[in-house]
Request: fold
Amino acid sequence: MRNVWAVSVRELRSYFLSPLAYVVIALFLALSGYLFALILANGREASLRGLVQNVSVLYLFIVPAISMRLLAEEQRTGTVELLLTNPVQEWEIVTGKFLASVMLVLVMLGLTLLFPLFLFIYGNPDRGPIITGYVGIFLQAAAFLSIGLWASSLTQNQIVAAIVSFALLLILWLSENLGQFLGGTIGSIISYTSVITHFQSFPQGVIQSNDVIYYLSLVLAGIVLSTLSLQSRRYR
Amino acid sequence: MADVTFDVGKGEVLGFLGPNGAGKTTTMRILTGYLPPSGGRAEVAGFDVATQSLQARANIGYLPETVPLYPDMSVRSYLDFMGKIKGARDRRREVDRAMEKARIAHRAGDQIGKLSKGLRQRVGLAQALLGDPPVLILDEPTSGLDPKQIIETRNLIRSLGGEHTLILSTHILPEVAATCSRIVIIANGRVVAEDTPENLDRRLKGAESIAVTVRGPREQVTRTLKSVPRVLSVQAESDGNGKAPAGSLASFTVQSEVGADIREALASAVVQGGFGLMELRPAHLSLEEIFLQLTTTETPETEVAA
Reply:
């Protein structure tokens, strides 16, 4: 656990030493602020539902930018060899990296708390859906980051990592439409794999255990696959 | 790699010498637990690198060939991070000690990305020294340095021997002669020689070498030359194009016991064998030549797989 934390802190510092973190956070705040203002002006409703439902679109672009360097860069510069020739295990590196990216997203989401603050100052919003909405977008971010982490473990090239994770996220995104188009049992199974299907109840103020389990299993899958991918150097 | 067997005693400085692509880095990666051996065993400080990898790694300070650094960190924060990973006790003092030893302390606050190649090498070395590991493995520690830095690094390496067991790989011959107490020469994934630099040297200079060029079939001439008393070895030189038509010239290097002048005996053996003696002269091999000879001789094609 000590190693996980060390990797994580180093990675987080590295995010803020490069312009990447600032650019990503600024972009996210600008876009989500724009959406928030637009939805509020149109709907005149003191709720975050509209924004929360649209945050996942932003994630499609933001998350690959955050996750692309995590393992790709270490593999390119050879620092992964440095870590793995010390008493550190693959899963510790992977988990540390994942936690660092999650912490970055927490900072990013923390700054958006300004939006509900406005609602509370100028209106009387329903507290429940706001809280569950945040739980939802946080879980979704964690799941996306984990997938992005796996994409990053597959290559030494950050751009390739970003494109692969974008594609993977898009597939998880579009599988809902595909499922609806196909219909029947197969269709509903495909729809069930979609991040959209599992997101719908969070902005309504409902946290369903199967949705939480869905996102957590994506997180776990990403971490396990990344670990295996790092270990695969042994068999190449 | 095939049949690379060697052992290093405590406090010894072992030079791992071989041309590029001989399997040096692969050997080091196996020792440091980065790659698993596909066969055979390796132990570091009594721990098997495959089954007790973490314990083995905890006893090794490793400097890979391309020094792996985080360019956006400062020297101190990088070493602090590595100290955490290595679980060094009293980390601040340990980082100071390692920086002092690798002579990088005066740049502790600088960003690694802005340091010169030589200074980065020192940071890498400081990293390997963290936690005072009993075994140090340095992969080409002087590659890409300027002559002054090379001398400094060699002095440093020499000063580390004794307290640490040191394995050092290089393809530069004078380097091992200057720093190592024992040399393993590796080529095509095989150990071709293992000895102290002095012995390797003596083996070359001590033995009298004679270059012989003969007109005649190579195998028969080799047999004839070997039958001469006091001859230690006969080495046929490859003739470049590989084809050897009957009646062509063949060159040999004959090594004899020290102090024996066998030139006359060789000449008469060749003539009595019915071959044409074209040239016969004393030859001296430098360490460099022996290295080339050892590492360029053909090895069986089989089981040479890295």
